[in-house]
Structure formats: structure tokens, C-alpha cells
């Protein structure tokens, strides 16, 4: 299938985030009219390289950089207005902000969420740390689900109500954080209310019922691309719990977050980096700790887009990828970072895990077991030459083609795009077999 015929499409990371979704989305956008971020928040960091410029987007959809594209932040998202407005300000004059739409139903992140995130991590017992992005994501989603403490974007525009609610909520938060974590400086509800009322005026022109907006546009025949954040192995239900984020990072998150039925989605592009990375705590069964790991990290420039933390790296994990593909159902795969593997004499792919006398072929519910597994590897020959200038499958060394082909086979979906560098044009579209 040609990219132009994808129909409404979601782009979803099939690993632990940072697969290169931003670049894949950017490459596809030419064929779309609307781009939607539907879950997560400022924990995401999507990098787009255009010419000499590099953009790191956290809250804004990657389509914001294109002039004729409507960019939507839908209701399943958690929005930190300080981060969002910072991004808007940084891009003002360079992009058409009139194209931005923000859901009136999205939840708001407040300073006490960020603080709770940091304090909970600091207070965690050994082994209990999650290694979050400190963006307040978990506490904000927890407040949403509690139904008592969540504040939605629409509430920013009812001043009397906002004052009253924040007064009650912040009194509760101060008591809670003091009792649990010995919070030193209580939050000042009046100051926070004033700050958020000021944010409201900046955001007001963009806020609407994005679900209605999306349905209207789909009915008119506009093409919608849903930009996934995080990765399916960080999914709250199916990921490596508790070392996950607080949202549905799979396709379920698209329908619930954006408010569209599954039948509105025609294609699912699963993004699989050519090796494994993870930032934060939690198991990474194929992790490379020594010199090979350092080489991979340096060559791939694996440092977090949101927190700057060094990403953990490892060989490609086909057990995790196959599991992720099972509940995501990719119709196409995109594989960024094949170029990063140039120069390794041999490459390994994990096809199972050994746990004592047992062999695991899929992810266990007991995430803690993953720290004791030993990956069973298939070894493939590497290739020497730099492939960053290749623009067709035929130009790639046979070993690189065989490596990508094998991953497609193991995951059970066709690879339709290969990344050979961070720039917009460093991509190979795959029409047939690799
Ligand atoms: P995302 O969160 O999935 O959008 O990924 P990030 O932007 O956090 O991290 C991906 C990193 O890899 C960014 O620095 C990209 O510029 C870079 N990148 C994307 N595709 C490729 C590729 O094919 N090759 C190389 N070398 N870098 C890539
Ligand atoms: P993008 O969209 C990589 C990870 C954090 C931590 C765990 C929980 O750029 O791929 P949270 O702050 O969400 O409570 O952290 O999830 N994490 C990500 N890792 N890429 C992301 O987003 C991530 N978003 C969250 O590092 O391990
Ligand atoms: Mg990222």
C-alpha cells in the first residue's frame, strides 16, 4: 500500500518510547490534513529535524510545524499550560497558531502534580522508584481517575468556580503532601489561581470540543493522523507494570483519547527502533551495559529529549516487539535508526527468554521476573559501511536488508519505512520486499 492511501492513521511506538515517532509522523504528514495528540503530556519529547534546525515538541503535535495542518490536543491528554505556552511562545511567528485546537475536556497539570511526582520518587523504597519524567503525569492522571481532584481545561473559563475548586483542592494537596512527604512550603492557592487565569486567556482562542471538530473534519473527508506518545511497552495495562506511564499507549488510547470509533482508523504504523532503548527504571532484558552499550548510545545519540537522561540501550527484543504488535495490530512498520547499527561486526536479536529451566516466548505479568531472564539470541552478521546516504532498499548492504527483513518476519508485519538518520530526507520508503 502506498503512503497516500493510508486513510486515517495512527503512529504508535512499539517499544519503551523514543522510537523516533516524531520523525515518522513528520515524514507522513504530507498526506494528511489533521494531526492529533490524544494521550500523555509533557513527558513526551518528539524530535523533528528540518534542515539545520532541530525541534523538540512535548505538548504540541508535530504537525504544528506545517502551515496548512490542523493540530489537535485531544481530551485524553494531560496539559501543563506552562509547558504548552512556553512551546507556543517559542514558535510564535514561525508557525500558524490559528491551526491549533485544544480539548475543553483535557486534564490540567498543576505545580502540585509535578511536586508530588518528584517527592514520591524521592521517598520511594529501594526498587520502588519508577524513574518518571518528573512532569506530574502520574499524579495528574490519578486525580483524573479519582474524579475528586481533577480539573479540566473548560474549568479555566469559569473564574468563580475555579477559585473555589482550587481553594479546596490545594488545601487537600498541602495536607496530603505534608503528611506523606513533609512538604516544606505549602502551595498558595490564590497565586496558582491567578497564574492559571492568566494562562486561560492565552489558551482561550484554541479551546474547543475537539471530538466534534474531528468528527466534522473526518466527515468532510479530511485525513487524520493520530500521533502516539510513549510506547506500548509503557502502556498502563499491557506494559511492564508498574514501570509504565499512566495512560493507554496502544491503539485503545487513540479511540478513548480522541473520541473516535475504532472504525475511523484505517492504518496503524508501528514504530520499532532497530535496537532497544529505555529511559527510567524497569526491566530491559536485552540491556547492554559495557563497551558495546556505550558505543550504541553514542552512535545513536541516545539522550532523553525531555529530561536529557542517558537512555539505556540493548539489542533488539523481538519477544517484547511481537507482544506489542499483538495488541497494537500494526498494518505497517517503520524502523528508525538502522544507520546507528553500522559498524557492529555482529548484531543480536532476542527471540525468547530463559528463566531457570523455562523458556518464555512472551511478556510475563510478573514484571519482576524479567530481571532474572536471560535472552535467547539469534546472531546476524553486521555491516561496515555508513548507510546514512542510502535512499533506496537496493542501496543498503545485504546484511542490513537481512536484519530488517528478519525483524519484520519475527514481528509479523511488513516494514514500510527505514530510517537512516535524523533528517527529514534520511528515510527509505519500502514498496515491496526488503
Ligand atoms: P520519539 O519520542 O519517538 O519521537 O523519539 P525522540 O525524538 O525522543 O528520539 C528519537 C531520536 O532519534 C531523535 O533524536 C531523532 O532525531 C533521532 N532519529 C529519528 N530517526 C532516526 C534515524 O533513522 N536515525 C538516526 N540516527 N536518528 C534518528
Ligand atoms: P515519547 O513520546 C520515553 C517513561 C519515563 C518513565 C515512565 C513513567 O517521547 O516516546 P511518566 O513521567 O510518564 O510518569 O514516566 O515512562 N516515559 C517515556 N520514555 N519516551 C517517552 O515519551 C516517555 N514518556 C514517559 O522515563 O520510565
Ligand atoms: Mg521521545
Polypeptide structure, described:
The protein has 434 residues and is of the alpha/beta class. 31% of the residues lie in helices and 20% in strands. It contains 11 helices and 20 strands. It has a 10-stranded mixed beta sheet with strand order 9-7-5-2-10-1-11-15-19-20, sandwiched between helices. Strands 14, 16, 17 and 18 form a 4-stranded mixed beta sheet that branches. Strand 16 and strand 17 (358-360) form a beta hairpin. Helix 3 (111-123) packs across helix 4 (137-146), helix 3 runs parallel beside helix 5 (159-181) and helix 5 (159-181) packs across helix 6 (189-203). The longest helix has 23 residues, at 159-181. Bound molecules: guanosine-5'-diphosphate, 6-O-phosphoryl inosine monophosphate and magnesium ion (MG). Residues 13, 17-23, 45-47, 49, 300-301, 305, 336-337, 339-340, 419-422 line the site of guanosine-5'-diphosphate (GDP).
Produce a short descriptive summary.
This protein is of the alpha/beta class and 434 residues long. It has eleven helices and 20 strands.
Write the layout of secondary structure elements.
Blueprint: E1 9-13, H1 21-28, E2 34-37, E3 46-50, E4 53-57, E5 70-73, E6 78-79, H2 81-91, E7 100-103, E8 107-108, H3 111-123, H4 137-146, H5 159-181, H6 189-203, E9 207-208, H7 210-219, E10 224-231, H8 251-258, E11 267-271, E12 276-278, H9 291-300, E13 312-314, E14 316-317, H10 318-328, E15 332-335, E16 346-355, E17 358-360, E18 374-381, H11 398-411, E19 415-419, E20 427-429
Parallel strand pairs: 1-10, 1-11, 2-5, 2-10, 5-7, 6-8, 7-9, 11-15, 14-16, 15-19
Antiparallel strand pairs: 3-4, 12-13, 16-17, 16-18, 19-20
The structure holds guanosine-5'-diphosphate (GDP), 6-O-phosphoryl inosine monophosphate and magnesium ion.
Amino acid at each position: 500500500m502506498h503512503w497516500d492511501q493510508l486513510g486515517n492513521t495512527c503512529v504508535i511506538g512499539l517499544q519503551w518510547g523514543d522510537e523516533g515517532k516524531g520523525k515518522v509522523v513528520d515524514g507522513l504528514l504530507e498526506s494528511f490534513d489533521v494531526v492529533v495528540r490524544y494521550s500523555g503530556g509533557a513527558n513526551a519529547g518528539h524530535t523533528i529535524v528540518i534542515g539545520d534546525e532541530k525541534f523538540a515538541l512535548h505538548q504540541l503535535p508535530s504537525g504544528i510545524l506545517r502551515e496548512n495542518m490542523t493540530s489537535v490536543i485531544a481530551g485524553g491528554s494531560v496539559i501543563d499550560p506552562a509547558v504548552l505556552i512556553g512551546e507556543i511562545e517559542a514558535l510564535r511567528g514561525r508557525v500558524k497558531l490559528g491551526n491549533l485546537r485544544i480539548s475543553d475536556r483535557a486534564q490540567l497539570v498543576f505545580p502540585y502534580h509535578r511536586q508530588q511526582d518528584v517527592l514520591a520518587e524521592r521517598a520511594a523504597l529501594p526498587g520502588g522508584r519508577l524513574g518518571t519524567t518528573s512532569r506530574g503525569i502520574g499524579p495528574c492522571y490519578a486525580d483524573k481517575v479519582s474524579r475528586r481532584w481533577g480539573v479540566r481545561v473548560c474549568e479555566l473559563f469559569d473564574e468563580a468556580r475555579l477559585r473555589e475548586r482550587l481553594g479546596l483542592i490545594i488545601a487537600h494537596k498541602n495536607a496530603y503532601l505534608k503528611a506523606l512527604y513533609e512538604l516544606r512550603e505549602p502551595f498558595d492557592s490564590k497565586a496558582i489561581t491567578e497564574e492559571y487565569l492568566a494562562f486561560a486567556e492565552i489558551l482561550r482562542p484554541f479551546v474547543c470540543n475537539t471530538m466534534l471538530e474531528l468528527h466534522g473534519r473526518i466527515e468532510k473527508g479530511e485525513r487524520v493522523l493520530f500521533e502516539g506518545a510513549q510506547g506500548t511497552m509503557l502502556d498502563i495495562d499491557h506494559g511492564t507494570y508498574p514501570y509504565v506511564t499512566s495512560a493507554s499507549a496502544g491503539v485503545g488510547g487513540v479511540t478513548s483519547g480522541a473520541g473516535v470509533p475504532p472504525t475511523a482508523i484505517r492504518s496503524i504504523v508501528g514504530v520499532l527502533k532497530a535496537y532497544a532503548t529505555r529511559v527510567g527504571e524497569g526491566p530491559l532484558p536485552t540491556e547492554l551495559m559495557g563497551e558495546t552499550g556505550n558505543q550504541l548510545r553514542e552512535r545513536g545519540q541516545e539522550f532523553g529529549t525531555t529530561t536529557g537522561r542517558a537512555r539505556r540501550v540493548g539489542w533488539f527484543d523481538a519477544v517484547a516487539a511481537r507482544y506489542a504488535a499483538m495488541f497494537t495490530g500494526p498494518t505497517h512498520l517503520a524502523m528508525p535508526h538502522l544507520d546507528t547499527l553500522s559498524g557492529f561486526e555482529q548484531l543480536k536479536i532476542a527471540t525468547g527468554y530463559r528463566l531457570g529451566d523455562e523458556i518464555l516466548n512472551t511478556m510475563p505479568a510478573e514484571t519482576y521476573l524479567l530481571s532474572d531472564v536471560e535472552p535467547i539470541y539469534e546472531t546476524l552478521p553486521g555491516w561496515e559501511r555508513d548507510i546514512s546516504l542510502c535512499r533506496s532498499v537496493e542501496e543498503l548492504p545485504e546484511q542490513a536488508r537481512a536484519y530488517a527483513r528478519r525483524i519484520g518476519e519475527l514481528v509479523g508485519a511488513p516494514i514500510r519505512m527505514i530510517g537512516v538518520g535524523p533528517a527529514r530526507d534520511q528515510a527509505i520508503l519500502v514498496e515491496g520486499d526488503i
